[in-house]
Amino acid sequence: MIPSLLPTYNRAPLSFVSGQGSWLTEADGSRYLDLGAGIAVNALGHAHPAMVQAITNQAQKLWHVSNLYQVPGQQALADKLVENSFADTVFFTNSGTEACELAVKMARRHWHAKGMDEKTTVIGFEGSFHGRSSAGIAAAGGAKLTDGFGPLLPGFRHVPFGDHEALKAAIDDTVGAIIIEPVQGEGGIRPVPDQCLKGLRDLCDDRGILLIFDEVQCGMGRTGRLFAHEWAGVEPDIMMVAKGIGGGFPLGALLATENAASAMTAGSHGTTYGGNPLAMAVGNAVFDIVADPGFLAEVGRKSGLLRQKLEGLVAAHPDVFEEVRGAGLMLGLKCKCPNTDVIAAGYAQHVLTVPAADNVIRLLPALTLTDDDIAEALTRLDAAAAGLASNAA
Question: Among 87, 149, 179, 383, whose Cα sits 20 to 30 Å from the Cα of 291?
Fold first, then answer.
């Protein structure tokens, strides 16, 4: 008999009732160090005072009116995003998945408006993740996402991650866009080297192709820059943002250049909930903190400290861990034993991590993680690894 809650999640036997900073608490008072941050969502940790104040103030005034009317908070946040990015325009959604849907629609509409209706193909990369909508799973193409959901949305092509020659061979006159995560998250914390992002930008320019960056997981300060692609000194035509931008409140955004977005006229796209006053109050509060250069510098410092300690952890437990990978506070530990065993061992030590492909565990802590939290994280991860090594022996 199917349960009342659709069983699509393999949930851990944990249930939390409150949180503060990087810590979560169960009903019995047990505390866990949260190195997952809701899968890179809780950028400012749990119950951040500025966020609590922002949503409380807004909740007492106005929750929702729909996009039939002006929403001042949208204009404020859009202006901030435009001022601090490559973009000329912004559309607010409820999630990264919805941002992906619009990215695909925008790219195809762009070429349609130019009378080039053949340019509908979008190239994606193996190991990618762009959400679980029809367009999202078609763009990623992995069997884990697509099996049983055919026929898949047509117009997508996939190439191996890092295979430059395969990418060039996949391009023909039907290709209108390439979509890529500057750092793959679900795929195992795999950063795209700066030179590859630069080469990809040049390739798109040479071949007349729109470049879409998916920064749903790696954006909003997670790598120590507001957006991960800034490290490479390149700019996309379209970019998907979500997760950290709402700090735990459902919020996403699609950023684009005027050229890429010029065909998106009134009535071509819409959303009922996207950009509602509650979401905008939180989004503005998050942005004002995360975009501050001093805050980003601290993310960079803390990420260096955490990575250094994780390298030591790998060296201390060579039978459990293989390497550290990633960028900023988007780090992965590639495991030699099953990553699910490492995560379970972490639960026993009251530390939370997140699984990923390629036998990796993800560490996606709040950007407000303290030095004391980092020290405690390593103590608990070390104990988890020691227990695994002891069991194996």
Answer: 179
